[in-house]
Structure formats: structure tokens, C-alpha cells
Amino acid sequence: MKRRNFLKMSAITSGAVCLNVAGFKVAARAQFAPGENPVLVVIYLRGGQDQLNTIVPYKDKQYHAIRPSVSIKEENAVVLDDQWAFHPALEPLKAWYDKGKVAVVVNSGSPHSTRSHFDAQDFMEYAAPGNRTVHDGWLNRYLAATVPDASKGYGLPELRTLAMQELLPRSLRGRYPVLAVPNDLDGLQEVLDLFDGFYAGEKKMDISAFLKQSTNVRSGVDADPVMTSGRETIYGLRRLQEVLKGDSVAELGQLTFQEYPDGFFADRMKKLARAIKAGVGLEVAATDIGGWDHHIGLGSVDGALDRMLKFMSEGLSSFMDDLGSHLDRTMVLLCTEFGRTCKENGNAGSDHGHGGAMWLLGGKMNGGKVYGKWLGLHESVMNDKRDLPVTTDFRDIFAEVLRGHMKFEAPNGFFPDYKAKSDSLGLFA
Fold first, then answer.
1. pLDDT of residue 428
2. What are the residue ranges spanned by the domains of the chain?
3. Second label for 161, Cα 20 to 30 Å away, from 15, 235, 343, 420?
4. What is the pTM of this model?
């Protein structure tokens, strides 16, 4: 990594350099011992992921009629029940679904009508549809609202949050510092050594000493914000390098050699699994998979969607295998900005739509089910006579995951312009 790129990364890594939550209510929440805290991994499928060929209403004649060349036929589908099936490329997740470790919420998404990728992604990641005044991501707001109470002996975890990519997703941007992880982490040693002296001064500080410092010392009012951000970045990356070497996991007797498929996504999930099992306090992580904007060549069992779902499902299944018993405290949430049009277009693809699907994997949930209100595919029930309607607001899912999995009840105002539903989806007991 070039020096100028490292400087750029350290500047955007934290989103803010102080754990200053003034103006936002810090909510009470349960405290957990290292290696026991719940973990939330949010994966954003950028581009507008197609619901209908992913979670397939394979018995619906209207589905096959409006998608004559790209629909998934029953003989190819991975059948879940008498209504729904997975695309065949999701076969690796079927066993997890049967174990209750996978759930899908169909017809979910944003109540806002935009078909712009940029607006829709902003609205979902800030969890504020149509509100352009919000600039802290919903995951960052959670982190800021649940800072561990040092007065009770709960120090700041070593690696509480990670963005497994070089650019912070909007959901993690905000006042709470977040570490963005470059793809070539192993190749950073020379750069880290170079900037260690610059940010730490003549007396270099080891990781353990740095982490023992209080928040006020590490990010005090007399500290230069750029220097503080640089130190946070360097020590976070060094600690992550240590974790990924396996020493921390081996000490816990949990070093495994799970095989993963090739590709950037599987590599990121492999690193996340190692960090989760290392017991370093990882609580929130996020990454992206782009390329779901299939206006052309969506395909049935042999198109672009097939290739991407296979790429994704194999990585997820390996990750879940790798976690072992830690899967019960780890939940993966897959989101996308909107779904696709119900009818296929003239290029064997689909265009920007409205309602889509959200996926949940792992954790202690009521899985092995398809959730959400399904209205069918007749034009009379479609949004604008072309799209799946949104019958479940994505914030209902976010709130339920925070409550049921992270043990955090979002305070008033956490989701702007939103009133929580009196009844939940029932994702958690």
C-alpha cells in the first residue's frame, strides 16, 4: 500500500476520532465476558439483488409467465416447502436452513420510492429513508450508544468493530471510530513500521500499553485528531495481524483449518471467523458484495445471478462451518437497497424495482422459515404495477435484530422518523 493511500485510509477509518457521544443517549445494555458477546455481521449486496430468482415462488404460474426465459423451474429448484425454494446455487445453505440457521424476509425494503442506487443505499445504511440530514450510519449509532462502561471494569474491546474492506460502508460511518481493513493486510508491515514512528513519536508504544490507556488519554482534548486517528489505525491493524496469525485462537484451543473457496468474499469471511473466535471483543462487522445490478443476463441456472449466488453461498456456508459453537452468538444480516422488477426485460434481465429480500443466518433465532407478507404477482398488487411491494420495513428487521440478538433496545430517535411496530416478525423467541 502506498503511503498516501495509508494516510487516506487512516483519515477515513475512524469516521471520528473521539468516543464522544454527546447529544445521543447512551443506552443501557447487558455486558458480556470476552468470547461471549453477540456479534452482528452485516453484508450489503450492492446493486439491487433480485428476490424472485433467489427465493423462488416456484409453484406460482404467474412467476413463470412473467419470466419466461429466466424463471427457475421446479426440477432445478432447491425446495423449502410447498411455496418457496432456493435458487440451485444456494444449495450449500439448504442444510443450514433445515437446522434453523437461515431465515428470509420476503417483500422487505425501504418505504421510500426512489429507484436510485445511491439514494436507496444512503437511506438504508443511515436507516433514515428520505431524511438527508442523518449522516451517522445505523451500526455506528449502535456502537456509539453502547460504549462499554469503563467505570464498571468493562474496558473498550480490542477490536470491537471492523469494516472488512478498505472503504467504510455508510452504515459504519459516524462518531464512533471504526477500523477499515485493507485487502492486503499481510503486505502492510513496512508501511506500519514507517508510520509507527510518525504517529507514536520517539517512544513507540506497544499494543497492550495502548489499549490500557483510558479513552480520555487516547482521544483527549489536547490530542491532535489526525495523530489520534493514525495511532488508532496502526494499533488496530497490528492487533488484527496478530489475531489472524492464529495465536489468539490457538490459545483458546479453537484453531481450525476450515477450507474456504477462492475469492475476496470468502477471504474476508475467513478473517472474520478468526477474529470472532479469538475473543478480542469483536461485536460489529460489515462488508460488501457489489455487482447485483443485473439489467442484462440475469439468467436462470446459468447466468450472472447463478455465478454470484454460488460465490456468496459457498463463502457463507464455510464461514458458518468455521465458527462452530460461536455461530450461536453470531448473526449475519444480508441487505440490499431494493429488489428488481417482477417481469424480465428484453435482455433476459430485470430493472430497478422496490421490494426485495433480507436474509438472516446464524444466531439463536426462529430460523428455517420464510417471513414477510407475500401478496403474489398479479399486477393489481404490484408496486407501480411492476415491482414487489414492500410489506416489511427494513427498520423493523434492524430493530428486531438489535433487540433479539444484540440485546439492545433502540431508544427513541435511534431510527429517525420511525415508530416501532407493536408486534414483531417473530424472528426470535
1. 95
2. 3-15+39-404
3. 420
4. 0.88
